[in-house]
Amino acid sequence: MLCLMEICIPSAFVESALGLSALAVALVAGFIPILWVQVVLWLLLSTALLLGFRRLSHSRRRIQYQLDDPNAKTITAIPQGETGRVMYEGTLWLARSADPEEAIAANQTVQVVQQKGNLLIVMPSEVLL
Questions:
Q1: What Å distances lie between residue 128 and 58, 91, 108, 111, CA to CA?
Q2: What are the residue boundaries of the structural domains of the chain, listed by start?
Q3: How far is CA 68 from the centre of its chain?
């Protein structure tokens, strides 16, 4: 039942891991009739499968996406080695300078060179010209 739920409600293979663990324990239940041993076996198998599925899903998330438009505008100053705010594609983002020794003033056009989660790594446009 848990494996079938994964088809209807995708949840990063949580139900599949629990269901596959339950099926494996059901197969060996005839050989191990002690309930608490079966429960411990199910917990161990579930944990192992969840960690395995998690590693697979994290390796897929590391894909870098090509940014549509690299231009952004600083809303606040970006001090050396710290974060500031930029307007990028109509949304406010946290941003950090690509050069940790360089500060970027407010109201400057910058180029987005990388995205790390919800943080943009930017460089002043005149540096790239």
A1: 33, 23, 14, 8
A2: 2-61, 71-128
A3: 20
**CATH 2.40.50.140 is right for the domain spanning 71-128:** yes
Distance CA 78, CA 74 (A): 8
Q: pTM higher than 0.70 for the full model?
A: no
Instruction: Walk along the chain (129 residues) and give the pLDDT tens digit of each residue.
Output: 555 555 566 565 777 788 889 889 999 998 989 999 999 999 999 999 888 877 776 554 444 555 677 899 999 999 998 999 999 988 899 999 999 899 999 999 999 998 888 899 999 987 655
Cα separation of 7 and 66, whole Å? 30
